[in-house]
């Protein structure tokens, strides 16, 4: 009865929608600021059964993300989580 957090699926959706967005650090092992942000948005949506889209936080890793990028990632996170859990 463990809950799965579909982060890998969300990463795949980002790659399809915007292949130029850098999701990993140069070591190809650690997530970039965008990858960390996406992970947080997917985790939020999964745990709270709520869209992260209204959140206006832009992150703090290497630097805050541009608003458009953050909004894009929040949208991908919510669509992925809804589809994975078959939420309406």
Helix content: 40-55%
Structural class: mainly alpha
What is the end-to-end distance?
A: 21 Å
Q: Work out the helix count.
A: 3
Mean pLDDT score, rounded?
Answer: 95
The major pleated sheet works out as: none
Which strand-content bin applies to the residues?
Answer: under 5%
Number of strands: 0
Low-confidence stretches are none
Query: What's the shape?
Result: globular
Secondary-structure element series: HHH
Which radius of gyration do the C-alpha atoms yield? 12 Å
Sum this structure up briefly:
By secondary structure, the chain is mainly α. It has three helices and no strands. Helix 1 crosses helix 3 and helix 2 packs across helix 3.
List the helices and strands and how they pair.
Blueprint: H1 7-17, H2 33-48, H3 67-85
How would you explain this protein's 3D organization?
The longest helix is centred in the C-terminal third of the chain and has 19 residues, at about 65-85. The chain is about 50% helix and about 0% strand. The chain has about 90 residues and is mainly α. The radius of gyration is 12 Å and the shape is globular. It has 3 helices and no strands. The chain has helices at about 5-15, 35-50, 65-85.
Summary keywords:
88 residues; mainly alpha; globular
């Amino acid at each position: 009865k463990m809950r799965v957090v579909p982060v890998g699926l969300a990463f795949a959706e980002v790659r399809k929608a915007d292949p130029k967005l850098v999701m990993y650090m140069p070591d190809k092992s650690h997530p970039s600021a965008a990858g960390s942000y996406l992970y947080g948005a997917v985790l939020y949506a999964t745990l709270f059964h709520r869209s992260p889209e209204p959140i206006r936080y832009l992150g703090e890793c290497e630097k805050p993300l541009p608003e458009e990028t953050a909004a894009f990632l929040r949208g991908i996170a919510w669509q992925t989580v809804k589809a994975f859990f078959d939420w309406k």
